[in-house]
Amino acid sequence: MIKLAGSLRMQIESKVRNYHQSLLKPPISNEDDFIERTVQAFQNFSASGGGQSLKTRSVKVDKKPIVGFVPCPPLRSSRALHREIGDLLFVFKHFLRNKLDAHRASIVQTKYTSGTGKFWSIDTGQFLLMSYWPEFCILKPRKFSKTYDLRPKMLSWAIYGFVGPNANGYPLYYSADRILRSRKFPSSKHFSFSLNSMPTIWVYSAGFLSKLLGGFIGENLFLNPKAKTLVDDLYKIAKLLPDPPGEFEWNNEEFEEGNNFGIIEFTITEQSE
Fold first, then answer.
1. I need a surface site. Which of 81, 82, 208, 249 has the fewest CB within 10 A?
2. The pLDDT of residue 62 is above 60
3. Smallest Cα–Cα separation from 35: which of 176, 131, 161, 197?
4. Does residue 90 lie within any of the structural domains?
5. Per-residue pLDDT averaged across 79-97, rounded?
6. Cα–Cα distance for residue pair 237/253, rounded to 1 Å
7. How high is the pLDDT of residue 184?
8. How many domains does the chain have?
9. Cβ neighbours of residue 175 under 8 Å, at least 6 residues apart?
10. How confident is the model over 4-26, as pLDDT tens digits?
11. What angle do CA 198, 224, 36 make, to 5 degrees?
């Protein structure tokens, strides 16, 4: 996909290692703490080498967007469900000669545990959204009244990020679809997920970020304009113009108080192939 220059790749790997260390001391205390540290770690980072340059920007919104949807099979319910859209949105953009030629995104639902075992509690309604993506609308903030029907094509569009002492201090990422393959769809309101229930880790944090920056994972927004519409609207919630290049400032005006939602964007530019 995108071949990173050796010198730029080494700078990125160093940044990721430092980010991992920042999650260890002090230990992550909850999901919002992880979101806050991730947003801060990738705020206005820049690196260059081999004719390529990387710039990052990140923002924290003080209220997670809430969506509403009517459950589809296999969850049996006649009532509409209201759930948060997720915790983090990772976006990758690649510009070649000032033209955007790669645009990918992954949305992450973070799960935290401080228990002695590697078990995380997952809300079944949220899991339905992350696994099947039925039609939904954004309920909060209220100005977004359209209906979204994403039909994502990539497993790496919807990701669970497991954090806490028993994730070895790092976020461990699994696609919702991969979790579904390891078990039957739960019938209860919450179910327990164990890292030991998966034969291998799908992709750990360093692998997740390097694959994202290489253009290997994430939903291809060129091929899925419906997903791009959602991503652009999440940017608007964060008071951000959705399409660089250029110098931008986050204009995160006052929003309803509550749990955090973060957007982290990586933009690589180069002038030649």
1. 249
2. yes
3. 161
4. yes
5. 94
6. 10
7. 84
8. 1
9. 155, 156, 158, 159, 160, 202
10. 899 999 999 899 889 988 888 88
11. 55
Exposure b/e, 188-219, CB count within 10 A at least 16 = b: eeebebebeebeeebbebeebbbbbbbbbbbb
For 172, the token pair is 């461990």
SS3 content of the chain, % helix, strand, coil (to 5): 30, 30, 40
Furthest CA-CA distance within the chain = 56
Q: Output the six-digit token pair for 29.
A: 């205390």
By the 8 A CB rule, do 93 and 100 touch?
Answer: yes
| Distance from C-alpha of 261 to C-alpha of 85, rounded to nearest angstrom | 9
1 domain residue, yes or no: no
Cα–Cα distance for residue pair 73/88, rounded to 1 Å: 26
Taking the CA atoms of residue 17, residue 21, residue 22 and residue 25 in that order, the dihedral angle to the nearest 10 degrees is 180
Nearest C-alpha neighbor of 194 from the set 135, 111, 127: 111
Identify the H or E element spanning 55: strand 52-61
Calculated CA dihedral for residues 190, 192, 198, 201, nearest 10 degrees: 90
Does residue 166 sit within a domain?
A: yes
DSSP 216-247: -SSEETTT-HHHHHHHHHHHHHTT--S--SS-
Q: Which residues contact 171 (CB under 8 A, 6 or more apart)?
A: 23, 34, 110, 161, 162, 163, 205, 208
> For the chain, what is the mean pLDDT?
85
Going by C-beta distance under 8 Å and a sequence separation of 6 or more, which residues neighbour residue 162? Answer: 111, 113, 120, 171, 172, 173, 174, 195
Instruction: Using CB atoms within 10 Å of the CB of residue 127, give its burial: 0 to 12 exposed, 13 to 18 middle, 19+ buried.
Output: buried
- Assigned domain for 175 exists: yes
Strand partners, 99: 96
What is the domain range of residue 72? 6-270
What's this model's pTM, rounded to 2 decimal places? Answer: 0.91
Read off the tokens for 138. 């954004």
